[in-house]
What we know:
Mean pLDDT: 95
Order of helices and strands: EEEEEEHEHEHHEHEEEEEHEHEHH
CATH topology: TIM Barrel
Amino acid sequence: MVTEVRIGSLVMKNPVTTGSGTFGYGEEISEFYPLNVLGAVTVKGTSLLPREGNPYQRTCETPSGVLNAIGLQNPGFEVVKDVKIPFLQKQNVPIIINIIGSTVEEYEELAERFDSLPVDAIEINVSCPNVKAGCMAFGTTVEGINSVVTSVRKKTKKPIITKLSPNVTSISEMAIAAEKAGSDAVSLVNTFLGTVIDAKKRAFVLANKTGGLSGPCIKPIALRMVWEVYKAVKIPIIGQGGIMTGEDAIEFIMAGATAVSVGTGNLVNPMCAYNVVREVEEFMAAEGIDNINDIIGCVS
């Protein structure tokens, strides 16, 4: 049984990685299972300098989902370089670093710095809806995506994955822009912009007022977007959005994803990504699928 997939020069022994922002840097989850069970680990979004994130309350549950407005809190490049990457190297698992910036120049500098470090791919976050500058501001226009991806491409030889926002009129147009600018792959979708109101308090639940919606509630929309993008571009897709089981992952692969990312599931059950890996293998065995690559986009 072949479960290996490729994203540019990144080789994943199975198609399962983790959603940036839901897995931290793997320290806590590594207490539950060895991280090298996964095809890759995608770490929390990293900025040049440490970020405190948004004020509390920053998360709340919704029907079949979670709304978050963390605001990309992270320890910054130096801590990731000196502490987080050495830890992940010891886990013997491919590392996908997620970079965030408020300006094109910040993305450029991060890409250049990480290019010389032992990471296997760079995911460009141009889709977080919970910050006031950068990220989604770049990811909702063709021009914005082109400017960031083109600039990052000049600074690194590592595979580039552009993480796309679903908060656009046509996600296929954004994927095409990323491909033309030099992205080796796209990942989709990030969270949907939403809000929750406490009717008794007559107030927003989140201090930020709005946040990103994720979880099983968004899966049908994410699945449709992956299918649309698969028909529009030739580069690989990392599908994500409400994946909780191996069969969820298989659906995304059949829609056109080469790999999948488990996000909110990690918050519900720390064993979720591990279980998805095993359940994908069990599905393949039960259905007589010898090579996972044979079913990529099979419903298209």
